[in-house]
Structures are given as structure tokens and as C-alpha cells.
Specification:
Helix content is 46%, strand content 14%. It is of the alpha/beta class.
Length: 283
Amino acid sequence: MTYECFDVSVENGIAHIQMSRPDKRNNMNRAFWRELPQVVDKIDAEAQARVIVLSSMGPHFCGGIDVSMFGPSDEKVSDAPLPAHHVKRQKGLKFLDTVKSMQDSLSVLEQSRLPVLVAIQGGCIGGGVDLVTACDVRYATRDAFITIYETKIGMTADVGTFPRLVKLIPEGVVRELAYTGRRMLAEEAANVGLINRVFDTQEAMLEGVMEVAREIAANAPLAVHGCKRAITYARDHTTQEGLDWIGLWNASMLHPEEIMEAMNARTQNRTPDFTDLPKRKIS
């Protein structure tokens, strides 16, 4: 299947999703918001891979939301136009519906059963920050930077930056970035824990990220999925709730056969034959 905004390949248990509009700085246009959940859901539902790598083509990772998103939609909503005063009254709810749809498009990364690693080069601007904070692990080139640019254009970021970023780095740092809209360079982002590792070049970054992806893909998919679920749950709940949850999870999801396979494979110096995630219906 071909997409307007993405190139997708799957090899050796690794799905590589590349944003493919470098001439537009990989801006997030209408097609982007429609296609991203389609791509991720298809890979997940069909159990095509064990890990996802998200990257982009060109000198910049993502220039943020395409300005065309703020223009009139070309979709036909109704044959009978509403009176102006009714249109005005509906404006807030329509905007909320649009924002909720965009939030859901990025949340698919967090909700996927597969770990999502993201490789960032150059600018990661506005909506790009919403995007990378929804991923599991972030890597960057030395020239990369993030900026909550929405503040600079008179709006408050609303697609996912604040609910997630405040759980990734200190609150005071989030507030400074939000209030100023300044650029945070890769080294600083790594120092506060937002970026896992910084690379000198985009080529070195992709090679390094793929190496991490290969290591993840070599592990038991059921166990890795359990780790992702447990970490996300623990992030959003109290310590005791997290302890209770993981106990119940392993009471129903722990597979002694997978443990024995891992031990036997190590003893026999062979690649373990782990069970892949089951296929599921696309919602």
C-alpha cells in the first residue's frame, strides 16, 4: 500500500516508518493525520513486526502542523448551509472534534502493542514535539532541536505535548520551554532525559537506532508488550496500583514456555523461537 506522507518497510521484525515529504519539512498535513494511525494499526493488527522505528527524510524531522490545516476543509459536510449565527455557535465544538481526532492519531503510537523508537534530526517543531513524546524512546542527531513553537504563533499546544512532556522531564523545564517557545538543542534534551542518545550524523543515528531495534526484536514479543503496558500503566497510576496491576498481568499472561525457550536457546547457542503477538482486528 502506498501513502502520501510515509514510506513503510518491514524487515527482520522491524517496521520502518519514514515521513517522506522532505520538501515540505515533513509538515503534518491532512493526509498525515489520516495515514499515521492506518500505518501503525496495520503493522500492529497484522503482527507484521516486533518493533517500529519512526524517522523522516531530509534535513528536518518535522516542521509541525501544515498551515493548510487551519484553512477551510474541502470535505462536503452538508447540502444546506447553516445560518452564520449557527456556524459561530458550533465553532468551538467543531474545533474540539478536530483536536480530539488529531490527538487520537498520535496516541496510536502510545497504544500500539509494539515499542516505537523515533529518530530525530534537525528541527522538531510544534506538532513534531507532540509526535515524538507519544513514542517510547527518542534518539537525535547533534544538530536536532525541539521547540514548542505554538506559543510563538499565539496558541497553546493541544495535541499531546503537555500531558506527556511533563511526565518525561522536570516540570520547570517544560514550563520554560512552553512559556518561551525557545529551541532546546539535542544535548540539553539528553541531559534532562528527553533524548536517550545523541549521534553526530543522521546516518549514524539510524544505524544506532536500528541496532537497538534489532536487540528488541530478538526478545520475546509477549514479554516486550507486557513491559510497554506495565510501564505506561505505572506512569499513570500510584506505585501500589502498579504493583497490583503487574501481579495480575503476570498471573494471567506469564508464559513458562517462553521462559524455557529463552533458557534452552541460550544453552544451545541458537536463536530462540518466541511466539509473535497474535493478530487482532483493526478498530
